[in-house]
Write a structure and sequence with these properties.
The protein is of the alpha/beta class. It has helices at 17-27, 58-71, 79-83, 86-99, 110-121, 136-145, 157-166, 189-198, 221-224, 254-263, 265-268, 275-290, 293-308, 326-338, 368-384, and strands at residues 4-5, 11-12, 44-46, 103-107, 127-131, 148-152, 172-177, 202-206, 233-238, 248-252, 318-324, 341-346, 356-361. It has two domains: 33-51 and 317-384, Aspartate Aminotransferase, domain 1 (Alpha-Beta Complex), CATH 3.90.1150; 59-289, Type I PLP-dependent aspartate aminotransferase-like (Major domain) (Aspartate Aminotransferase, domain 2). It has a seven-stranded mixed β-sheet with strand order 4-10-9-8-7-5-6, sandwiched between helices. The longest helix is centred in the C-terminal third of the chain and has 17 residues, at 368-384. It is globular and about 55 Å long. It binds pyridoxal-5'-phosphate. Pyridoxal-5'-phosphate binds at residues 109-111, 114, 135, 137, 177, 181, 206, 208-209, 238, 240, 248.
Length: 388
């Protein structure tokens, strides 16, 4: 039998180490399970990012069906080969118009949009200052870019300035979420933009959790701060949360869009976003424009459930209830589920050690009764595991 020997002299064979790794994860309370939802289940879902409740809107579902009927179940090829349909082009124009930018480019996921734009704008010899609250997709984009990466504390504008001042680089990027995905807090976008401008850097802002939730008509924090279309500012977003579909988009100048088409590897070497998702996202964007009150309903739902559970007033649609210990958090989430309420459970590495939590996300279509019922069950579950 052939085995490989590590430098420490431990003999390993192939994937034999996986069992030990799995045991370690279980012992640390960090094992994860996939749970399949059944169609039409009656769970009260406070774990999705479908903030506006549009993923099940009849117009969105119908548009997905029509797009699939017209163009097929998948795009069939990279956008650059034959994977671009008229629907993709229309969605890009509509997104650019909505966000107030010159252009937009759609990717097959928000994750790939973030990885693609960072790698296309920074490389060896460049500097990226990354906010510690950045989503994993921004972090992975930084890592893959081969640029020097300086991570600063969440929202620490002075640390961003210091990093930009002390690292002479060819080019510099500052990257951050506008609403931190873990707890829904808002990043100081105007101040970060000011810092980036002062040092000739470009700011990339991920508006994944702000679209449909913050800003005029749900246009996000960049628009709220009057920065829509500003120079040296790149916005990324997802079609998979408030738009109830799938996919991501990068928004900025027409020159940036051209650059990404030529340089973003996750655009070039990836099959185009499925037409059904494009159709769904277009329909959802139309509804968001026509019914901006959905944004207010989402924010009100977040405030109500936070109040009922004694949590601080949320700045977006996420309510974070810190439990601490990962096993306890998992148990609390399980108890909620047994009582018909689906909640998110975030553990390391998604959150720092010792801050495992229940993460609640609301939707515009939740009724007051549903919110009250959910809050009762969540409160009872937290008490049962000794977290309150
Ligand atoms: C802030 C943020 N950016 C990007 C993504 C990735 O988007 P997608 O799920 O569409 O790939 C997510 C989560 O999914 C996110 O929370």
């Amino acid at each position: 039998m052939v085995t490989s020997t590590t430098v420490t002299g431990v003999q390993q064979r192939g994937l034999s180490w996986l069992a030990g790794d799995a045991a370690d994860r279980r012992a640390a309370g960090l094992h994860r399970e996939l749970r399949a939802r059944a169609a039409g289940d009656r769970l009260l879902n406070l774990a999705s990012n479908d903030y506006l409740g549009l993923s099940t809107h009849p117009d969105v579902v119908a548009a997905a069906g029509v797009a699939a009927a017209d163009f097929g179940g998948g795009a069939g090829a990279s956008r650059l080969v034959s994977g671009t349909t008229g629907l993709h082009a229309a969605l890009e124009a509509e997104l650019a118009d909505f966000f107030g930018t010159e252009a937009a480019l759609v990717f097959s996921s928000g994750y790939l949009g973030n990885v693609g734009v960072i790698g296309a704008l920074a490389g060896r010899g460049d500097l990226i200052v990354s906010d510690a609250g950045s989503h994993a997709s921004l972090i992975d984009g930084c890592r893959l870019s081969r640029a020097e990466v300086v991570v600063v504390d969440r929202g620490d504008v002075q640390a961003v300035r210091d990093a930009l001042a002390s690292h002479p680089a060819r080019r510099a990027l500052v990257v951050t979420d506008s609403i931190y995905s873990v707890d829904g807090a808002v990043a100081p976008i105007a101040e970060l933009y000011g810092a980036a401008q002062d040092f000739g850097a470009t700011l990339i802002v991920d508006e994944a959790h702000a679209l449909g939730v913050r800003g005029p008509g749900g246009r996000g924090i960049v628009a709220e701060q009057d920065l829509a279309g500003a120079p040296d500012l790149v916005v990324t977003t997802v079609l998979s949360k408030s738009l109830g579909a799938q996919g991501g988009a990068v928004l900025g100048s027409a020159l940036l869009r051209d650059h990404l088409i030529d340089r973003a590897r996750t655009f070039i070497f990836d099959t185009g976003l499925a037409p059904a998702a494009v159709g769904a996202a277009r329909a959802a964007l139309r509804i968001l424009r026509a019914e901006p009150e959905r944004v207010d309903r989402t924010r009100a739902a977040a405030r109500t459930i936070a109040q009922l559970l004694g949590a601080p007033e949320p700045e977006a649609a996420v309510v974070s209830l810190i439990v601490g210990d990962p096993d306890r958090a998992v148990r609390a989430a399980q108890l909620c589920r047994e009582r018909g309420v689906l909640v998110g459970c975030f553990r390391p590495p998604s959150v720092p050690v010792g801050t495992s939590r229940l993460r609640l996300t609301v939707r515009a279509d939740l009724t007051d009764d549903e919110i009250a019922t959910a809050a009762n069950h969540i409160d009872a579950a937290l008490r049962e595991v000794g977290a309150r």
